[in-house]
Amino acid sequence: DAMVIQNPRYQVTQFGKPVTLSCSQTLNHNVMYWYQQKSSQAPKLLFHYYDKDFNNEADTPDNFQSRRPNTSFCFLDIRSPGLGDAAMYLCATSINADEQFFGPGTRLTVL
Amino acid sequence: AQSVTQPDIHITVSEGASLELRCNYSYGATPYLFWYVQSPGQGLQLLLKYFSGDTLVQGIKGFEAEFKRSQSSFNLRKPSVHWSDAAEYFCAVGTTSGTYKYIFGTGTRLKVLA
């Protein structure tokens, strides 16, 4: 089945230790999104790629970076995780303005 | 300003009862509207969407929603709730100009009593 895959599902890192989360898709969608979701809150968009064009949200901290080396893969890099970065990170894809397909998420714990 | 409001943070219903989750939006153009469901620790699953046409939209799991332009609303309904419907529900407006992204509501957590 075509899908959005996130690895790992659970990630534990130490305060200040860089971490990379990955997302892959078999849907061949042109738009890929990264969201941060904290407990009992709506997903918060960090950035998205429209094809190769990177779109950063104005309030996304510089600590968060992203790479999209090809259509299928997108990475979220957190350069120096703080305790406040512990959250669920969701990847999603879409074809332009159509519905977004979400992955299962990566739960990040910062010790 | 563009926004989505879900007035009910928590709703509790008995199994077999009907359900209506409210969603109001503020958006300058014709909106693309979505309802998603999220179970604990999981990603979001699309229940239904509205782009144009018939204002009553049927979705998965027996859900439906009605777009009312005059009220700027897109309320989600289900005639008979099952215990497995307990989850968080998010309404979203999809932007259609410039970049493509969602404006999410704050979510409604549904609890189902046996």
Could you outline the blueprint of secondary structure elements for this entry?
The complex is a heterodimer of chains A (111) and B (114).
Chain A: E1 4-7, E2 10-13, E3 19-25, E4 31-37, E5 44-50, E6 53-56, E7 64-67, E8 73-78, E9 87-94, E10 101-102, E11 106-110
Parallel strand pairs in A: 2-11
Antiparallel strand pairs in A: 1-3, 3-8, 4-5, 4-9, 5-6, 7-8, 9-10, 9-11
Chain B: E1 3-5, E2 10-14, E3 19-21, E4 24-26, E5 32-38, E6 44-50, E7 56-58, E8 64-68, E9 73-78, E10 87-94, E11 102-104, E12 108-113
Parallel strand pairs in B: 2-12
Antiparallel strand pairs in B: 1-4, 3-9, 5-6, 5-10, 7-8, 8-9, 10-11, 10-12
Head-to-tail CA distance between termini of chain A? 36 Å
In percent, how helical is the residue content of chain A?
Answer: under 10%
Look at the helices and sheets of chain B and give the structural class: mainly beta
The interface involving the most residues is between:
A-B, 25 and 24 residues
Strand content of chain A: over 45%
Report on the structure:
The complex is a heterodimer of chains A (111) and B (114). Chain A is an all-beta fold and 111 residues long. Helix content of chain A is 0%, strand content 52%. By secondary structure, chain B is mainly beta.
Summed up, what is this model?
The complex is a heterodimer of chains A (111) and B (114). Chain A is mainly beta.
Task: Note the main attributes of this structure.
heterodimer, A: mainly beta, 7-stranded mixed β-sheet, 4-stranded antiparallel β-sheet, 0% helix, globular, B: mainly beta, 6-stranded mixed β-sheet
